[in-house]
Amino acid sequence: MHLGYEENFIVRTYEIDSRKKATPAALVRLMQEAAMQNVLQLRLSVWDLEPYSISWVLIRMYLRINRLPNLNERIHIQTYPAGFEKVLTHRDYKIFDAEGNLLAYSSSTWLLLDTNTRRMTRIPDFIMQFQQQVPPESECLPRSNDKLPKFEHAHFVKDYQVNWHDLDFNMHLNNTLYIQWMLETVADELLQHSYLRELDILFKVEALWKDVIRSESQQIADGTFLHRLVRAANGKEIATMQTKWTLPPDPETWKT
Fold it and tell me: Would you give the DSSP letter of residue 101?
């Protein structure tokens, strides 16, 4: 991986849930920490791009979880740029356990934000030149290009407010909180007795400081849910997501 980056992490106490396993949002945070170290190496970080008034923004992510790591487990994360287009760039992630088993993998798509206009902008030539060094497409993960199903009706609803400490360095809601807030809005039994296996999220617009955000979810099949975040004031969609969960073999176990 000419442009890639690898790092070992240990799952910490603040990254686990009640079952002592890393949360999906924690996995995404660790993947993005590896990505940050990668762009710092390549001198393509937010601080390197600041003089050009541009910054990276995540717009699509697919995550497949084979197994969630446990507290104190050592994991190995690989990440690399997987392609550059006129206005989009792609990045892959793979997470392995100490024995080399693939715990999870993710493909993602990013755009460049003009930090003055808050609009998408073309990728400049000094970034596009890295395309010559990315792995061939056959060695990269498949990309999420399909449209997500249309959200029809909310079965679960919960409201949040974007607080100061929810913001990232782009001054909008941290993308891991989009995921966390949407995953929270499902049946209690699902959270207690099931495991998330897949998520596919599309980020549409920024959520900004003091916005009141409504998280909604809709069950469309056994173990399959649609989610969305909307502005409570006007119902404008901020992000949509589809998730698939591993359910208990007997629904009666939800009651134990």
Answer: -
